[in-house]
Amino acid sequence: xxxxxxDPVEKTVSxxxxxxxxxKSLDELYRLIGCDLVQLVQLDRGIVLVCDEExxxxxxxxxxxxxxxxxxxxxxxxxxxxxxxxxxxxREGKRTFDLITV
Length: 102
Fold this sequence. Notes:
The protein is mainly β. It is built from 1 helix and 9 strands, in the order ββαβββββββ. The strands form 2 sheets. Strands 1, 2, 3, 4, 7 and 8 form a 6-stranded antiparallel sheet that branches. A 3-stranded antiparallel sheet has the order 6-5-9, with no helix packed on it. A hairpin with a 4-residue loop joins β1 (2-7) and β2. The protein is globular, with a radius of gyration of 12 Å.
């Protein structure tokens, strides 16, 4: 499944391909994000950000924000398509997310 990985520590935004359907198992997302519990944040209709639910309780090594929003995300995140009920491949490309402050 096509997704975007945002890594504020490495200061990278990259397209990735998930090997496992996240609707069946979250293990790959846990590994990529480096967490034990994920939070789904609806960014826009059809765009979901998956991040570490407990990131702000840990020492913050990196964070990012989207221009024009007050939302700050601590740690690595994955952007997928769909909604909180069903995740889908992301239709938007990397260029859409290049305006992220990391």
